[in-house]
Amino acid sequence: MSDTSVSPVESAAMRRALALAARGPVHGPNPQVGCVLLGPTGSVLGEGWHRGAGTAHAEVAALRDAGARGVDVRGGTAVVTLEPCNHIGRTGPCAVALADAGVARVLYAVPDPSARAGGGAEYLRSHGVDAVGGHLRPAGEQLLRVWLQAIRSGRPFVTLKIASSLDGRVAATDGTSRWITSGEARAHAHLLRGRVDAIAIGSGTMLADDPSLTARTPSGEPVGHQPLRVVVGHTEVPAGARLRAPGGELVALRTHDPHEVMAALAAREVRHVLVEGGPVLSTALLRAGVVDEVHAYVAPVLLGSGSTNVGDLGIGTISDALRLDVHQVLHLGPDVLLVGTPSSADATVSAGGGRASLGTPSASTSASSSTVQREEN
Questions:
Q1: Which domains occur in the chain, in start order?
Q2: Is the per-residue pLDDT at 356 higher than 80?
Q3: Which of 10, 47, 59, 375 is the catalytic position?
Q4: What is the pTM of this model?
């Protein structure tokens, strides 16, 4: 689509719609979407954004806002950040709502890639509505990058969290790790917990650290959204474990196959999972090529020995190293956070094409499957 077909008023409305979309929750199965309704003269008739699963979609919220203002949207333009859906889920199809309301034109940023909800633009065109897509698409894709990756891949977006000393250790030789990273780094990690749908650990970390896996404020109070707490492995969660205390739902996945883990979480509509170790789970997911982003908290501390946070990746030479494209660097007190994505050429590092699993850890990780994530447990 050429932007010459979009007026300056419509372009400004799209930027406003993107800002409205960002008000919606970043967690949950549904995307963040914003909508602005314009009259034939360019006046704003209504605005709306999606407030989470089960609530009105952005287009319907904007139509309701227009109704509350007492204005008629017939002949107007709907400017929306994502192609209107065309399916009945928890709510009705937005494409039908817009067509029934008499909207003459729909301008959207990102085509909906989901097989179930897509097709809204086609429906609108078949009902005489001018539907134009792609305006400010890069901004829309950036806003929805986690959700889009989850929908396109059919599995959750995986963020691997690593917290270690400068020499890559997550605990000293005696197993102690409190505290390697600073309070500022740990507070930031809790902010990330509050933005995801699930937190996953291996059963070894569960036994070694007895974490609670809750999202908390710097003062220790739980935040409103608590993600699912996922334990991967065949070991039973002990009756008195902190994971059985109040918090997000506890999910035990009795498997050592990372692809089965992804499938089980996708079936629960998990769009974003934060993996907090241990090294066996982290290594298996890296080898399977399902890690989308790495958050590495690095403290200016040297230990010289002790557990590392990643085991054997099957890499025998430096030219095969799994490299990250770093796109953010933050200073958190004395620590540094590096946020990066695996380079596309290095996406899968499983040696010999074999299927990665959470089997016996390598010698470098067998001493302890615990990681420094006990700092934020």
A1: 3-148 (3.40.140.10), 154-376 (3.40.430.10)
A2: no
A3: 59
A4: 0.89
